[in-house]
Structure formats: C-alpha cells, structure tokens
C-alpha cells in the first residue's frame, strides 16, 4: 500500500495536471457519485491535498472528492484523448484543458462538502499529518507520552494512523532504525531524549521519503550498497527489505520480525531491546 509520501507526490502531480482552468469533463463509475457529474462541469479545482493515505481534490464550489487508494488504487495523469494502457478498472476521470487525471481500481471514493469533511469516519480518526499539517518535533514528542500511546510498543504504534497519519511499513522500519529503538520498546520505557529523537526521525524520514521519491537511506550508504550490487529495492533503504544483509552502520546482519501482522526490519545491534 502506498504510504503518505507516495500519496502526497501523487497529489502534487494531479494538482499540476488539473489546475488552471474549468473542468471540461467528469466521469464517475459509482452510482452515488454520478449525480455530481453535470454540476462539476465549469467548476475548477483549486487544490489537491492529502491526509495520511487519503487524497482530497478540492473544488471551487467547496465540494471535496475523497479517495483512498487502499492496496490497488492508482491515479494516472494523461492526455484526455489518449487512454492509459492498463487492465485496472476506471473509477474517476476529471479533465481540464485537455489534460486528464484518472483514478483506477480504488473503491473508497466519496464526495463531501468542505464544511462537513471533518465528519468523515476515516479522517476523523487520524492523527497529525507531517506532510500536510504544521507538525513539529515537540508536538510528536508530547503525543508519544499521552496515556493512549505511551505503553504501546513503538513498532505497532507507528502503524496506528490515530497516532501519526501516513506512516506505513517501510517508514516505521526506517524511522526506528535511525532513532536507534527496538520495535518492542515503549515510549514509557525510554528517556525523554529518546522519545525526542524518535519524534525527530518521524518528521525527517517522512519528509526525506517525500522529497526523494521513497528513498530513506543516506547518500554515503546508498553508494556503498550500489558498489556491493544491491538492487534499488534494497539500497533505497537503511534496513527495510535488507534481511540478511549487513547493517550499514555496524555490519551486523539485518533481521526481520512480524509486528502488527506485518514485516518489520531492524538491526539487533543498533536497536537493542533494553
């Protein structure tokens, strides 16, 4: 499933594709969305933003198209006269000045008034979004010690969208490695300085993944990994998907464990359980 940085980058592409003029054509696959088709013609899109892994297409009449890609959804930008080559099922298409953005295979799509968007059952449960809201390190450090979070293992906590929105499997492995924390540790177990370090890496790793298209590793370690013949799916990360390969920092072999029913990678030397 795409994580927050990937959805935010997709939103940037769609915003660039669809801003700059009135909507010329709109198409929806689902019956509950079809009544909006005609009334969108002539309206404009003024912003495409994200909350966690959800995308919000905002129209000038204060309607908001909500979508969540889940496992299989994908947006494609293309010329309106050229159909993308795909076997996926078309769900939404919006056209502005001959430029189209099409959403395929997603099933969680709905239209909302901007004033009532906060009532959306998914959005209402989300924690702060590092990429789309003014979230700082101190704010996250304070959340780590809240009663609802401070006695939970950080390996599971970082997947809780109610704690921080947009984090997913590869981000949590990378964040915990750079923070030097074992996945089973709890905010309650560690020092204020360690919680502050974890908060800092939540912000820094997430923003790096956004700016560098999913790359969370350091430049020096990337060069080293490439020289050793690692594939992109491995060298782009410090630990994620590198089970059995040496840690870039200490050369201990990276291990894999399951936390929250999903795979997590860590260095047993750099991330001690105590």
Task: Describe the structure in your own words.
It is a single chain. The longest helix is centred in the C-terminal third of the chain and has 20 residues, at 192-211. With 274 residues, the chain is an alpha+beta fold. Helix content is 27%, strand content 22%. It has two domains: 4-125, N-terminal domain of MutM-like DNA repair proteins (Alpha-Beta Barrel); 137-266, Helicase, Ruva Protein, domain 3, CATH 1.10.8. The strands form three sheets. A four-stranded antiparallel beta sheet has the order 1-6-7-5. The chain has a four-stranded antiparallel beta sheet with strand order 2-3-4-8, covered by helices on one side. A two-stranded antiparallel sheet has the order 9-10. The radius of gyration is 21 Å and the shape is globular. The protein has eight helices and ten strands. Strand 3 and strand 4 form a beta hairpin. Helix 1 runs parallel beside helix 6 and helix 3 crosses helix 6.
């Amino acid at each position: 499933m795409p994580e927050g940085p990937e959805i935010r980058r997709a939103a940037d592409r769609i915003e660039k594709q669809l801003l700059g003029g009135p909507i010329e054509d709109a198409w929806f696959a689902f019956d509950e969305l079809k009544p909006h088709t005609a009334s969108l013609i002539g309206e404009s899109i003024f912003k495409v933003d994200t909350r966690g892994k959800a995308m919000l297409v905002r129209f000038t009449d204060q309607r908001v198209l909500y979508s969540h890609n889940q496992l299989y959804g994908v947006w494609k930008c293309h010329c309106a006269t050229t159909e993308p080559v795909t076997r996926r099922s078309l769900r939404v298409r919006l056209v502005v000045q001959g430029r189209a953005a099409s959403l395929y295979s997603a099933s969680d799509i709905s239209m909302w008034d901007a004033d009532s968007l906060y009532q959306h059952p998914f959005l209402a449960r989300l924690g702060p979004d590092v990429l789309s809201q003014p979230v700082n390190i101190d704010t996250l450090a304070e959340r780590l010690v809240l009663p609802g979070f401070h006695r939970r293992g950080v390996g599971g906590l970082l997947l809780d969208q109610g704690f921080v929105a947009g984090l997913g499997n590869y981000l949590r492995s990378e964040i915990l490695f750079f923070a030097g924390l074992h996945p089973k540790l709890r905010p309650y177990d560690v020092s204020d300085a360690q919680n502050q370090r974890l908060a800092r890496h939540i912000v820094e790793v997430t923003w790096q993944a956004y700016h560098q298209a999913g790359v969370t590793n350091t430049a020096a370690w990337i060069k080293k990994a490439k020289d050793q013949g690692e594939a992109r799916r491995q060298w782009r990360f410090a630990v994620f998907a590198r089970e059995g390969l040496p840690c870039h920092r200490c050369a201990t072999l990276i291990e894999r464990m399951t936390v929250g029913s999903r795979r997590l990678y860590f260095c047993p030397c750099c991330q001690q359980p105590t």
